[in-house]
UniProtKB/TrEMBL annotation:
Domain Major facilitator superfamily (MFS) profile: 20-460
GO molecular function ontology, one term from the record: transmembrane transporter activity
Keyword Transcription: no
GO cellular component, as recorded: membrane
Originating species: Desulfobulbus oligotrophicus
Coiled-coil residues: none
Protein name in UniProt: MFS transporter
Membrane-spanning ranges: 21-39, 59-78, 85-107, 203-223, 244-269, 289-311, 323-341, 347-368, 389-409, 429-457
Lineage: Bacteria, Pseudomonadati, Thermodesulfobacteriota, Desulfobulbia, Desulfobulbales
Amino acid sequence: MVVKGKEGSEEKQSVSPYHLVNIRLFILFRVLFNARFYYPVFTILFLDYGLTLEQFAVLNTVWAFTIVLSEVPSGALADLLGRRFLLVVTAWLMIFEMAVIAFVPAANPDLVFWAFLINRVLSGLAEAMASGADEALAYDTLVVHGLAGQWPRVLEVQMRAQNFGYIIAMTLGAVVYDPSVVNRVLQWCSVNVSVSQQMSMRYPLYLTLILAVFALFVTLRMRDPSPPAGHRTRDPQKATIWQLLRLVLRTGAWIIRTPMAFTIIFFAMTIDHTLRMGVTLTSKYYRLIGLPEASFGLLGSLVAVVGLFVPRLARIMVERLSFGLNVFLLGAGSVIALLFLSLFVPYWGILPVIAIFVGLMLTSYFTSHYLNELTDSQQRATVLSFKGLALNVAYGIIGLAFAALMQHYRVVQTGLHPSQAVDFIEDQAFVATVGCFPWYLAGALILTSLCCLPRVWRRRSTGRKQ
């Protein structure tokens, strides 16, 4: 299967896409928006502010539901009101979400909880609004200039730049969070100031807030590209709720009626949510394969370094191999990685973790390339938002399934080892649950293939143009 674009075959290959201001700003926005300095200390940041693990779980559930509820409407708004408008709003939301927890007094636990609740809602809205809008703006910019075929190269540079930002954020964020490190640096600089944990825990937030301000300046410089010839333009002042609903329904119907679009989203959903669940559990997994906690930040940076080379591999694959072969290689490789992950090999178990991160990056790259190539400009952001919705709903479902399996295996392991400590039972339940991952993904891929591929083959056999 090969996806053929609808944007025309003539490309102005002599013009570099990086000469276009929107493309440079798109890459810079992705770096600024995703380089969160608090990521390496995400969980303990909540706890050091005085929140409990239960509150942490509730707050992140709120974040996930906010994304799910606003994903598709925000994509439709981007198509109706303009992608730049949504990205400017996204940058403002990022500023507010960081400011509300960066400056909240930590002495009042109730106030801290409400501040973090507001942060999670604003963060979810920002994630949903950025999802699809920035990509649609960048891709349509290429289409207008006859450079749609350069999208794989733009994706390659964007993902590599984002990984550079991730490396810096992971390293610097963990360093400034540790008051002992900050104090040693201050002493070396002959600054007679002592920093406490209550002070240093805000430093990653301040740094991310600075990036949010820069992200706002970047979005203000963006411009919505002029629509291709023959495309109707919409007046943002006349956009109504009915237009929003009609665009959402029309786009959803188009995805269902278009076998290739449906197949791309379903395969992405199947692979992404399983691998993402594995990534979520890396801290616990590292402990069980004997890696010290001090190495976790370094391992995150190692994964980011490997990620610098993945976009080039992904571009070569989409340029030289068919869609079907790429999906087969990605699916088979993901199942094999999860099989090795489930073995919990001491120390060397880091290798399947790296393979899982590579699989996630390939999934993101393939989905962006094939779906943008297939989608019309007027509904591009909405289609990408449907994709984001599918991925997040599936991730939420597998999270619930993981919790249910853990509870089941706790009961089983308690019956098998009634005299063992609670920690031992918990570890054995975790090992047994992770052992289900490869078989789950293999079964899900088979079902997805049976559901999607016959429709694609029937459509191809009729000779109708996708």
